[in-house]
Each structure stands twice: as C-alpha cells, then as structure tokens.
Amino acid sequence: MAEKVSGLVLAGGQGRRMGGVDKGLQLLHGKPMVAAVLARLAPQVDEVLINANQNLQAYEGFGHRVVPDAIGGFAGPLAGLHAGLCAATHTLLLTAPCDSPFLPLDLLSRLKKAIGENDLAVAKTGNQPHPVFALVRQSVRENLERFLLGGGRKIDAWYASLNVIEVAFDDEADAFRNINTREELNGA
C-alpha cells in the first residue's frame, strides 16, 4: 500500500516584509492567498494541516486542523515544520508556504519518487533550493526539536545534519514564486 502523506501549509510567520500583516490572509484575486495554496496542495495529500500563530480562527475557517508553533517567539519555518511533524498522522509530511499560490500540482509525486531512503526531498530550480517546499520523514522530528531547542533557526544548518536529496523543478520554476511584499501581491 502506498505510504500516506500529510500536507502542511506554513502560515506562522509575521509578514514583516509586507508590513506585519498575516500574508496567508492577504487577498489574491479576491481570495486569501492561503486558499490558493490549499487548492493546489490538498488534492496531493491525505491530510492537511495549517501552521499559524495568529488569526487562528480565520485559518480554522478553511476546514483543516490549525497547529501553532510549540517553540515560541516566531522561530521561523523550522518551528512550523516541527509543529507539523508533531501533529501529522502520517509518516511523510509535504510542506509549502502560504505565500506561494502557484506551487506545482505534481510537487508530491516528484518529491516522493526521489526521496528513497533520504530524510528529506527538497525542490530546487537551477542552483536554488526551495527548502520550504519539501517532503520530510516523520523520523527527523526529534533531531529538529533538539536543533530548535539549542537555538538553531537556519534551515541550511539543520539540513547539513541530514540526508537530503534536491529535486529539480526547472520546468516549473515560476511555480515557486512567493509573494513577500505588497508590490509583489499587486503584481500577481
């Protein structure tokens, strides 16, 4: 039987580059950005979780379980990943950020095909890895928790301790475009 996969939308940041607003709830074509991410992510996975640290009721309105960071102080996407790994009911977790509404519809299938015995499979375009677009094994949770509790926050530093495979998505480079500023939101 095929291994089931949980999906996690990372919406736990502070949106500093967008003036401190909750990016996932900003409107894109009349709908919250997170709705576009969910529409593309949900069909690929068996369960959807949303990592959020503010506006929890708004995120709950999308019909999926909302999990806040267990590590305090807005510790970044790794804290969101940790929360997702703690809450996920399946052994694999597919992650995507709330500000990337064009994510590939084949993200899971390509990462899952490549992961093999590795701890993580990460999307990349050209020489640029996209670490928040990853398929992560549940077995890394304790390693990640130790890293975070030790003050670690940089994804690259954490990845260095794991077996990671990067998966080329050069044919879908625009799918990884994220929206960080008001200008980028207006341009999308």
Class based on secondary structure composition and strand pairing: alpha/beta
Strand order within the widest beta sheet: 5-4-1-6-8-7-9
The major β-sheet equals:
7 strands, mixed
Q: Name the helix and strand elements from N-terminus to C-terminus, one letter apiece.
A: EEEHEHEHEHEEHHEH
Average pLDDT number:
91
Radius of gyration equals 15 Å
Provide the low-confidence segments as ranges: none
- Cα end-to-end separation: 40 Å
Question: Which percent band covers the strand fraction?
Answer: 25-35%
Number of helices: 7
Helix content: 25-40%
Shape: globular
Number of strands: 9
Overview of this protein structure:
Strands 5-4-1-6-8-7-9 form a seven-stranded mixed beta sheet, sandwiched between helices. A two-stranded antiparallel sheet has the order 2-3. The radius of gyration is 15 Å and the shape is globular. The termini are far apart. It has 188 residues and is an alpha/beta fold. The model has no long low-confidence stretch (mean pLDDT 91). It is 29% helix and 25% strand.
Which helices and strands, and how do they pair?
Elements: E1 5-11, E2 27-28, E3 31-32, H1 33-41, E4 47-52, H2 56-60, E5 65-67, H3 77-87, E6 92-97, H4 107-115, E7 120-125, E8 128-137, H5 141-149, H6 155-159, E9 164-168, H7 182-187
Parallel strand pairs: 1-4, 1-6, 4-5, 7-9
Antiparallel strand pairs: 2-3, 6-8, 7-8
Helix pairs in contact: 3-5
